[in-house]
Amino acid sequence: MIKILLVEDDKSIVANLTEFLTAEGYDVKSASGQEAALKFLESEQADLVLLDISLSDGNGFAVCSAVKSLYGIPVIFLTASGDEYSTVTGFELGADDYIPKPFRPRELVTRIKNILRLTGGAGSVIHLGEVAVDTVKGTASKNGRDLYLSALEYRLLLVFLNNRGAVLTRTQLLESIWDIAGEFVNDNTLTVYIKRLREKIEDDPQNPAIIKTVRGLGYKVD
Question: Is residue 26 in some structural domain?
């Protein structure tokens, strides 16, 4: 059974999420702060950490940094802090995903499954041709050279990775990255970021082999 450590100091959220995720077949443990979370991981193993930024002691960024450096466990941030600084900081520390509150429980379960499928329950490197995405470090490289993706570019690439083989509409992509750039994300912005991402990961951005356009439908990564 997949064990999830929920690091959250809001008791009502802990109770509701624990009940919901347990019903979905997960073994859920909880910690209210930084010290309790790290003490738990010293003695018990977890397959994934759900982490709030604001905690009763310490902060989620410190917990994420420690979890990634010591255990290499996937981390998903659950937080009301939807500003770009928090998002960028989270990804720079190696967070695998970032979900702003309030969120739909079903969406959370889907994100959990996607991250566990990508990482096999632990951090790993995912390959797209010559592009390597390190979900522990939150980086992407091509032929060994860092691509220096922005937070939004990296999140967009993760969305494609999480949905390999599926055609994603522009609306689906916009909804997936909305929480990073907020009101600044619109259809034109999406076009710009797909173009930028292709310029970094494709050998020939004009004839993309990774992020393919499906006419009249959207985009697809095989």
Answer: yes
Cβ–Cβ under 8 Å, residues 160 and 172: no
Domain range for 200: 148-221
Amino acid at 114: N
Query: What's the sign of the alpha-carbon dihedral 44, 121, 9, 15?
Result: negative
Q: Give the bridge partners for 3, in sequence order.
A: 27
Between CA 115 and CA 94 the distance in angstroms is 13
Report pLDDT digits (tens) over 65-81.
888 888 888 999 887 75
| Helix (H) / strand (E) containing 140 | strand 139-142
Q: Please indicate, yes or no, whether residues 44 and 94 belong to a single structural domain of this protein.
A: yes
pLDDT tens profile 158-204: 888 878 888 999 888 887 776 544 445 677 888 898 999 999 999 99
Which CATH number does the domain housing residue 115 bear? 3.40.50.2300
Which is it for strands 145-146 and 48-51: parallel, antiparallel or unpaired?
unpaired
Q: Is 140 within the bounds of a domain? A: no
Query: Which of 64, 98, 119 delimits the end of a domain?
Result: 119
Structure tokens at 160: 């494609």
For 7, phi then psi, to 5°, come to -105, 100
Helix or strand run (H / E) with residue 21 = helix 11-23
**Are 158 and 109 in the same domain?**
no
Partners of residue 140 on adjacent β-strands: 133
